[in-house]
Amino acid sequence: YLPFPQILPGFSWVQLVAKQHTDPRLEVLVKDKHREMRNVLFRAVDFASVQRAMDIGCGYSSDLVRLAREHPHLHLDGFTISPSQVTMGTRKIERAGLHDRVRVHYADSTKDPFPAPCELVYGVEVLVHIKDKGAVFANMDDHLHDGGYLVMADFTSNIRTEIDLDEIGTFTITKEQWLELFAAHHFALIDCVDVSQEMANSLYDPDYQRHQPQSGKDAAMVFSGYQSMDNHLHRSLKEGFVSYLLMTLRRDNSQSPAQLTESNRARLFAPTPYRQVLTQEPQRRRDTLGFFGPPTASHPVGQPTMPAVAAATPSAEQLMDALLDAIKAEIARLLGFAVADLQATMTFEELGVQS
Fold it and tell me: What is the DSSP string of 39-86?
């Protein structure tokens, strides 16, 4: 996902992922915004104190390569449960000439011990895909030094319960559940940045049906994924049902769980807005081609300049329909009904709810 300071008219996440966007500048934009977010994500880490780092879900190894290039003293390991990612990541590392310091392993962060003790563990949109998050934290207990860093970019549920979507492999826990994990494994939250609105901006695509890819092996998968998850994710982020947070924690064995919970709660429930970080630390901002224009006093993030059809704001009726659809889907999941079988006039008794 990409942190856009505002909606970019004509931009389509569906077309971008399907590699069917017609604007060649978008490749630069994607790289810029990925780099910008990582500039913010790692801003609280003192890399001079880090000798070895661990990526708990390294994908195609882009972050491993970037960190190794930026910090020549670092040794890094990455885990992935995808054999193809191991192959492609290893090739990327070898092409970069980093094979002496960077390794990718076909391994599971919930089960397999990390290769070595380390001072930094990180994951970008990794833990949301892991149901047993406690197993990953237990692995860190055995390998992350006291005072070491845990850096995460991930989602949190702002409703009263976690949001488990087994069909698409996402498991979003609440802030209270994050606090329990942090305290149980002796982590102090030292930095927390909220990127929710920026992520919602990049996911906004009211014409996603028209943008549905018509060809390509991934076309159906991309469209189905956007229809079932990401378009709803835009609404959930925009309305505050879920948040996308950049979190930096340090292992702190000197404080009690109660002390950690108290201090962590203050930061987790009052995160710094992403736009505020970029205003205060403009050197972290990336917009090479000026998609959003230079910041000005009247427009702190500038004006989007991509020529395209203007995006329409969803009506109140559309938002209400989307909310009702989400509620019906959750009720159907909990009660074991098909969504099509649910009727607004059904009684609790007909639904099998006794109390």
Answer: HHHTTT--GGG-SEEEESS-TTSHHHHHHHHH-TT-EEEEEES-HHHH
pTM over 0.90: no
Per DSSP, what are the bridge partners of residue 79?
105
- The stretches of 269-347 forming alpha helices (DSSP H) are 274-280, 316-335
Question: Across the strands, what pairs with 187?
Answer: 251
DSSP 128: G
Contacting residues for 145 by C-beta, under 8 A, at least 6 apart: 117, 118, 119, 251
Mean pLDDT by 10 residues, the chain (355 residues): 91 77 84 96 98 98 97 98 97 97 98 98 96 98 98 95 84 97 98 97 80 55 50 82 97 97 98 97 92 56 44 47 56 54 49 42
Pairing assessment for the beta strands 163-165 and 170-172 based on DSSP bridges: antiparallel
Nearest residue to 163 via CA among 173, 148, 178: 173
Q: Are 105 and 115 in contact (CB under 8 A)?
A: yes
CA-based torsion, 47, 49, 51, 53: positive or negative:
negative
Residue bearing tokens 């102090």: 188
Right CATH for 13-56+109-288+298-312 from 3.90.550, 3.40.50, 3.30.310, 1.10.10:
3.40.50
Q: CA–CA separation, 289 vs 305, rounded Å?
A: 10
pLDDT at 290: 86
For residue 317, the model assigns a pLDDT of: 54
Residue ranges per structural domain of the chain: 13-56+109-288+298-312, 315-355
- Strand order across the 242-251 sheet: 102-106, 75-80, 52-55, 118-124, 144-157, 242-251, 187-194, 272-273
